[in-house]
Specification:
Elements (H helix, E strand, L loop, with lengths): L3 E9 L3 H10 L5 E4 L16 E2 L10 H20 L3 E2 L3 E5 L5 H13 L5 E5 H7 L7 E5 L3 E3 L1 H14 L3 E3 L4 E5 L4 E5 L4 E9 L5 H7 L6 E13 L9 E3 L11 E4 L5 E4 L3 E2 L13 H8 L2 H22 L1 H9 L10 E14 L9 E5 L2 E6 L4 H18 L1
Parallel strand pairs: 1-2, 1-12, 2-9, 5-14, 12-20
Antiparallel strand pairs: 3-8, 4-8, 5-7, 6-7, 10-11, 11-12, 13-16, 13-17, 13-18, 15-16, 19-20
Helix pairs in contact: 1-5, 1-10, 2-10, 8-9
The chain binds flavin-adenine dinucleotide.
The site of flavin-adenine dinucleotide has 42 residues, from helix 1, strand 18 and helix 10.
């Protein structure tokens, strides 16, 4: 007889957003988290840059701005109280071309509006004094940026959910959702969880879970793969160095990020992936590809972004192109300093008109609350996102 669990709330997905939601619910609700993999944090949460974002990039008042700011404070306190290593390195957003000056000024203005402390405009000499290997015309020092290993945060959240009496069911791939009575979440292997409410935090599969629950959100998850390289000389820079992002694109551009273990990573770029969990260039899933290409928004997206897309593909195919991009601000960096170091796939919601959904997006359908768009900085913001979801559930 397949196992049948009961809960007040079932959370689908043990990435950092699902875990943070369950963590906030753990004392006052019977909570069950279901995860298709053998453990938590094996997709976006475990394959990202590990940057605690400051909130500088996001439109003031947007969910991203508000939840990144409060989530960052909650995350830092969470780590401090549990001795999870974190470090406030600050970061430099560097310009290499005069056309970037107004964009940098606009970012600084945004940072002030979002309440960031310690923002400082830098000239070329200031930058060289802080980071001797970096050659830039000007830059913005963002003092609040930090580093953490989000896998450790996810593991701590999962541990505390279970400690409080919650349950984590792994290898539980949700294949059906029935809302005729209380919500029944069904797994491929026949197990079920019956609950009063469900929260779907399925990342790269958010739209599929919404479809299972009978909700038409008009959104499709389009997967964007990004590759990383390890930089052999890990001490070339001491803090993250970012380019000025292209405001038409939600990704931040290839950057250098020190890791907590003392190394240095370069990446990630952003290329449309042929498989939602395709971590290698050759990974392709016909179902995922048909699903992506069959959505009108994908073609409109391709028309809107083909120029940026082509240069990203070039960077993906060639280490030299990748290194050239980094040499814009670290001229001494050589191609052979870069060793392949894995990849991540971002879940980015796209609407039918091909617009990349900019803000976090939530959709309520019956008894299920769907997190439809939780790209970067959702790892930083997760504790605030989880709190918001908890408050929404409690309010009914
Ligand atoms: C390359 C890259 C770099 C990034 N860098 C940063 C950064 O530096 N800082 C930052 O704040 N953010 C960063 N992000 C964004 C951040 O990682 C994500 O926003 C965040 O991890 C999203 O968490 P999540 O829980 O929504 O998704 P995920 O971590 O993807 O978790 C979703 C979970 O749902 C599970 N699931 C899916 N379908 C089912 C199903 N049918 N049944 C059961 N379980 C299911 C999956 O297995 C998965 O474990 C980055 C992302 C990427 C990809």
């Amino acid at each position: 007889m397949p196992e049948r669990s009961k809960a007040d709330v079932v959370v689908i997905g043990a990435g950092i957003v699902g875990l943070a939601t369950a963590w906030h619910l753990r004392h006052d609700h019977r909570v069950v988290v279901v995860e298709k993999e053998a453990g938590p944090a094996l997709h976006q949460t475990g394959r990202n840059s590990g940057v605690i974002h400051s909130g500088i990039y996001y439109r003031p008042g947007s969910e991203k701005a508000v939840l990144c700011r409060s989530g960052k404070a909650m995350l830092e306190a969470f780590c401090r109280e549990r001795d999870i290593p974190q470090v406030r390195t600050g970061k430099i957003i560097a310009t290499t071309d005069p056309s970037e000056d107004p964009k940098l000024e606009a970012l600084a203005e945004r940072g002030h509006q979002n309440g960031l402390e310690g923002l400082e405009m830098l000239n070329a000499a200031d930058i060289r004094a802080l980071e001797p290997a970096v050659e830039a015309r000007s830059g913005l020092l963002v003092a609040e940026t930090g580093l953490v290993d989000f896998r450790r945060v996810a593991a701590a959240l999962a541990g505390e959910i279970v400690e409080a009496g919650g349950t984590l069911l792994t290898s539980f791939e949700v294949t059906g959702i029935d809302q005729a009575g209380p919500v029944e979440v069904q797994a491929r292997d026949g197990r079920t969880v019956v609950a009063e409410r469900a929260v779907a935090c399925a990342g790269l599969h958010a739209d599929r879970i919404a479809a299972m629950a009978g909700v038409d959100t008009g959104l499709r998850i389009v997967p964007f793969r990004g590759i990383y390289y390890r930089v052999v000389y890990g001490d070339v820079v001491t803090r993250p160095i970012y380019p000025v992002p292209d405001p038409r694109f939600p990704f931040l551009g290839v950057h250098l990020t020190p890791t907590l273990g003392g190394g240095l990573e370069a990446g990630p770029n952003a290329v449309l992936a042929t498989s939602r969990e395709g971590y290698r260039f050759v990974d392709m899933r016909a179902g995922d590809l048909v699903n992506t290409l069959g959505f009108p928004g994908t073609w409109k997206l391709a028309r809107n972004y083909w120029r940026i897309g082509l240069s990203e593909v070039r960077r993906s195919a060639s280490r030299h192109a990748f290194a050239s991009e980094l040499r814009r601000f670290v001229p001494s960096l050589r191609d052979d300093w870069l060793l392949p170091a894995g990849s991540g796939v971002r879940a980015q919601a796209v609407d039918r008109d091909g617009n990349l959904v900019d803000d976090f997006a939530f959709e309520l359908g019956g008894r299920v609350l769907h997190v439809m768009n939780a790209p970067s900085p959702a790892a930083t913001a997760a504790l605030a996102i989880g709190e918001k979801i908890r408050d929404r559930l409690v309010a009914g």
